[in-house]
Amino acid sequence: MSSSTYPRRRSTHVIPNHFLLLLGIPRLLTLASQPSQYAHRVHLALDEVKAEYVTHNIDLQAKPAWFLEKINPEGTIPALSYGPKCAPDDPSPEAAAIPESLVILEFLADLFPNGGILPPNDPVARARARLLVAHFESVFTVAFKSAFYEGKSPQLVLDALLEFQARLPKDGFALGAWGMVEMSAAPFLVRTWMLLEHDFGHYPVGEGTKAWEALSKEDKFTRVRKYVEDMKAYPTFRGSWDEVRKLSVRS
Questions:
Q1: Residues 230, 76: contact at Cβ < 8 Å?
Q2: Relative to the CA of 146, which of 13, 18, 192, 219 has its CA 20 to 30 Å away?
């Protein structure tokens, strides 16, 4: 879908007179009917809190004027419009426009304090979650872009995974329960396994498969392998991910 409105989710968190509109577009590594890794983060958070929202896709090759003028002059996605109910392509002037996936996750954590994004009554745990997300963003996502988009060695991804793994607990999710860390990391980590296994990337042919074999077999990656398996099995993520369809588009 180049431009679509998804069915609304029934919400257990009532926000009178306000409307959530997620604006995004599929990128290189995704399907037209599913979000990029950045928009995927926001979809995971919205679905976890059972928010009622509408998604409207933006063509980044032909950005509409209303998006640049009313939502995000930088032109990046995802972006969230929060305000009075309106047509997806005609946001209300009273609406708040919020770009950047991690900023949106923080906003949703405030909007839905008991929704499971951040622990509601534990400032220390909230700080730990934010520190892990900050580390992941500054180390792993940089390595991800370098390998898959810029053609640098997948070894950068493996090294970044080991750094992130060292910050995880011995088992389970980062803070015990699924939350912001997993919403931030899962879209990147699950794609990493898929892309390496099928040697998709701008690095030399064969380098991805070689890195995937190391991830799959070497003991030093045991913890992060289990972490990714647990995330893939989590209901909110499982309902948002269709690897077979993604691979059919990439093939």
A1: no
A2: 219
**DSSP code, position 177:** B
Identify the residue whose tokens are 């305000």. Answer: 83
What size, in residues, is the chain? 251
Characterise 78 by phi-psi region: left (phi > 0), alpha (psi -120 to 50), beta (else).
beta
Average pLDDT for the chain = 84
- Measured in Å, how far apart are the chain's first and last C-alpha atoms? 19
Q: Where does the pLDDT of residue 247 fall: very low under 50, low under 70, confident under 90, or very high at 90 and above?
A: low
Q: Encoding tokens for residue 138?
A: 């500054």
Q: Higher confidence at residue 238 or residue 30?
A: 238
Domains of the chain as residue ranges with CATH: 19-111 (3.40.30.10), 123-246 (1.20.1050)
Question: pLDDT confidence of 6, banded at 50, 70, 90?
Answer: very low
Phi, psi of 3 (to 5 degrees): -155, 120
